[in-house]
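thread: overnight batch results

M.L. [08:02]
morning all. the overnight job finished for the chain we discussed friday. pasting input first so we're all looking at the same thing
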Amino acid sequence: MQTQEIKPATAGIYLHIPFCRQACVYCNFHFSTSLRHKDDVLRAMLLEIELQSEYLQGAAIETIYFGGGTPSLLTADEINRLIEAIYKYHNVAALKECTLEANPDDLSTTYLKSLRTTPVNRFSIGIQSFREQDLLYMKRAHSAQQADTAIKASQDMGFEKLSIDLIYGVPGMDDVAWRQNLARVKELAIPHFSAYALTVEDKTALQYAIAHKKAAAVDSNQAAGQLELLMDTAAAMGYEHYEISNLSLPGQYAIHNTNYWRGLPYLGVGPSAHSFDGVAGRRWNVANNALYSNSLLAERKLNYEEEQLNPAEQLNEYIMTSLRTQWGCDLDYITARWDATTAKTVEKSSHLFQEKKWITQQQNTLVLSNAGRLFADRIASEMFVTSEMYV
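M.L. [08:03]
and the structure it wrote out:
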């Protein structure tokens, strides 16, 4: 059985800037702390934008997102060159949001002024915490004072679309401290923030430090309790918890990331960047700056791997991403894209979780309750269908 293709009208472009001044202890993303090959990588990215001009099949670009790494290491001229290439080779008539991830210590008044000459209209600032002791544990490059200063300077410069990242579950961050971090979001009138539990990823400096007793271990019970505290506190402050890790004032959702969860297509440009055609095709660039650049600059060839999701994998991905959002898993959409039998199977698999009050059914939509959000990954995996359904 084949799915019914529902072709999206809009898409996004993600640019991975794989450079950082220093490594955060918890990070397992692809980056380099050496800027020696930055010019080569940027030239290769410009070429990739050209070579991938047909990937999105003419879909209107609604969002551009500079992620990393640390995109705020780029100059305004470098940002403009990348965006000019997107304007040249892609349909940008519907562009609404151009986001730059930034570290607080990069957002000087001079740099902010230069960014006003670019199409960047939104920042995602890596604050992580407003407390000095938390920043020291995570070995962040900025101070608590720089966090405050960067936000206020951005607002003063006219950048109203701001998001910040916060991390909870940090050893030494008790519930009082976590509440203080959340209160600071409201005090600074930040329209959007992302909140993540501190996790110990494989092959990170944090994993090594904990294993060798050089850093306090992360407590999963602390993280779970602080997620509950986040849900209660954010609601009281007037923020919508529209996705498990993302919260905003009404109408201030991050368009780019929301489109990920909606299953819209996106083109990923740069080393390790991922792309999705909006239906079944995924590809990911080689996670090596030199291999990425050499392939493009010397041979005009992309260096990537790819896969095609079968109908069951497409459905399971939809279940996983949709359940993370306040809009939930739409059984009518499943009927339209797959079939009514599949929608019934998914609905039936939710009954146990409805009994536990982890899922509520609102007409033909399945939505996680606050209690269910604590077990989102488990719930989604137990609702997955098998490939045998579509043989």
